[in-house]
Fold this protein.
Amino acid sequence: MLGLCRTSSTVASAGLRRHAISAQRLFNATAKKADGAASGGGGGASLGSKIVSFPKENPFAFQLMVATGKTAAADIMVQIVVEKKKLSEIDWKRNFIFVAFGFGYLGGFQYWIMVNKYRQWFPTMDRFAKLPFAEKIKDTAGILDAMKMVAFDVFVHLPFMYFPSYYVCKEFVTSDSWNLMDWAKDGTSKYANNAKEDLTAMIKLWGPSDCVQFVLPVHIRMPFRHLVSFFWTAYVSFTRGGSESEPQSEEEMAAQVERVKRRISAGEQPE
C-alpha cells in the first residue's frame, strides 16, 4: 500500500512538472507574439520617440542643422517680406554669407565655446542645468557661474569674436580680393564704423536672452539661442546684409566736386 502511494505521488509530481513546463512555453510564445504585434503596429510611436529624443541624444548635429537653416531662412524672409523682392530677385550671394556663417561659426565654433569650453570654465554648468527651478534659485555657486556666462557672452564673445567674424565672413563672400588680409582689414574697418549701433542692439537683445539661456538644460540651450538668433539674424540681414560701397576719401570727393563745377560752368549737365 505504501509503495502504491509513493508511485502515485511520483506520477502526480511528474504530471505537475509537465503542466508547468507547458504553461511556461505557452506564456513565452504569447509574449513573443505580443512583442511582434507591438513592434509592427507601434512603428509610428517608435519613430516619434526617436524624433523627440534626437536633440538630446545628438545635441551638436541638431543645433548645427538649426543654426544653418534658420540663418538662411531669416535672410530670405527679410529679402522677401521687408525688402519686397520676388523669389527670382533674391540675392543668393548675400544669402550664402548667412549660410556659411550659420554653419561654420554659429553651429560649429559657438557650440564649442558655449558647451565644450563653458563646461571647463564654469564647473557647475551641468549640475546647475539639471536642477529644478526651485532648486536653482538656492544654488549660489550655480547662479554665479550662470552670471559669468552671461557676462562672457555679452562683453567678450559677441563684441570680440562674433561681430569681427561676421564682417570678415561677409568680405570673404562679397570681396573681389582673394587676400585674407584684405578680408580682415576691410571687415574690421566696417565693424569699427558700425560698432556703436551694433553693440547697442546686441546688448538690448542678448543680455536678457542670455539670462534665460544659461538656466535651461544644456541640450536645449543652443536650440533656444538659435531661435532667438532668427530675429537677430533678420536684424543683421536688414541692416548689414547688403554690400556696402566704400566711403570716398576727401581727395576723391574734392575731385568729384571740381568735375561737377567744371561741367556746370561749361554748360553741361552734371551726371
Notes: Confidence is low (pLDDT under 50) at residues 1-9, 33-42, 245-249.
